[in-house]
Amino acid sequence: MHAETVLYASLTDVDALEQLADIGLDPACIPTTGMRDVVAWAVEYFYRSGRTKAPSRELLTEQWGHRLEQCNIELPDEDLEVDEVFAAIEYLQSQYVLAESQRLQREAAVEMAQAEPLQRVQVLHETAQAFHDLSMSVRNRQNEVEGVQGLRDSLARYDQRAAAPQVVTGMSLGMEAVDNHTLGVHEGEICAWCAPPKGAKSWTSTHVAHTEWKRGRETVLYTLENSVPMTYDRLACQICCVDYREYQRGTASPEDIDRVRTWLAENEADLKDGLHVLSPDDSLRTPTALTRQAQSYGAKSIIIDQLSHIQHPNPNPRRPKYETIAEIMAELSTLITTGRYMPSVLLNCQINREGVAAAQKAGRLELQHIADSSAIERYSSWVFGLIRSETEVAAGMATLQMLASRRMDLTNWRCAWEPWYGTQHVLGEVTL
Prior knowledge:
Blueprint (H helix, E strand, L loop, with lengths): L1 H9 L3 H10 L12 H13 L8 H14 L11 H33 L5 H18 L9 H17 L12 H7 L7 E6 L5 H14 L4 E5 L4 H13 L3 H6 L4 H14 L7 E4 L8 H10 L4 E5 L15 H17 L6 E7 L2 H10 L10 H7 L2 E6 L2 H6 L1 E9 L6 E7 L4 E7 L3
Parallel strand pairs: 1-5, 1-6, 2-3, 2-4, 4-5
Antiparallel strand pairs: 6-7, 7-8, 8-9
Helix pairs in contact: 1-5, 2-3, 2-5, 5-6, 9-10, 10-12, 14-16
């Protein structure tokens, strides 16, 4: 059986074994009874190693060679994709569920037929409990961890971080000082990037998209406000430091355009794939539609420009706007945190005009200055706010504030900020 072959191949591949350990596979789902102990031993080996190692083929054969011979099992020697392991687990579970449910139905029918009238309700309760137990035995355990094991996993993750400190994991925001502080937008995290109307949010989207593209992370950029051609025009100017206004007029210097042509020629082979700029129809702008489309591309990073253009799956003009936004944020958060697809998400959000005025007067942003701030704060792991005083605009600068964080202390930065020329970097930390 192919599914069993994939299962046994996963026992000596650390990434595949991690998937098997996280999802969980009830031993009863493994058709070859004698191999159940072997699979359990390999999973336990993975945990004892601090979730960093899988047993080698040699060690597995040394420990269980006699059992492998008894069961007539030859360990496959093949490279695995994580999705193959998930599919194999799903298939083994489906076969087990089919056989067990048929058995339970037959037994329930016999017991119900033989039961006294006053016992039938009890038979029903017992049958329902048996089906519930069956359902629980094949549940995905990725988001369920028991006490001691959860603490062991935490310590293992720390050991990995300590062995390679200051490593950006997940999405980079393309600004070294910010990335060094956040250590990246991790899997299953939403990073809300807030700025005023016409506050260069879309430029930040293309900047982050280019950064992720260069890092080799499959990236989807949803441009829900601007067109796809406009977005690629901006990318070309940012990457090659070309004045966007001159590029739009067709009056850029020959040297500027040569830089774009040269960059394409030098990078076309390496960066041919990996970045997908999309502008789906309104009906395909719900959180589920956006997430599933990104998943079909294998995207590890999703960039959405912007929140106000995401559609509620059940539009209702009578529903208050804050409720609509809260439900959109809740659905988006659920989609990227529950299940095996857990991308990093950058979500552009608006600072309303009243908030801009209040921030200019106070000299700093507050969360309440952001439109629909309570829902954004509740479901985001990071909330950044960008403001520019008149002096900063004239000097080509901006202030970037960290307004909320679940992992690090709040910090503010002074930035050089002319993204339409490709300038978007931190000058230093600042106290507000």
